[in-house]
């Protein structure tokens, strides 16, 4: 159950992280933000990133084997990176229609999935 909860929190964390890191690139398309300066964009992104931490920190505390969770530190990091890539690909395909997902992107993601396999291998 802790493993499932950890992954769910990491998913939520990465949604906010992706919005904070890349969502502002679409602000120019929104009437409210079309003239926003860099400081405004940074503060909005920072506010979104705060929510990332509300989910990321508990996910790591719950999931880490040193706190009674099922995952080692390396396993947590690799899980987080794969989730980040999945969320990012979905985000970029939904919000950035000019971006294309090519074969080399797919191969690179497969390599990361293989990293998960090898990290979890006993």
From TrEMBL:
Entry superkingdom: Bacteria
Keyword list, A-Z: Membrane, Transmembrane, Transmembrane helix
Membrane-crossing residue ranges in chain numbering: 36-55, 76-96, 102-120
InterPro entries: DUF486
PANTHER family: DMT FAMILY PROTEIN
Protein name: DMT family protein
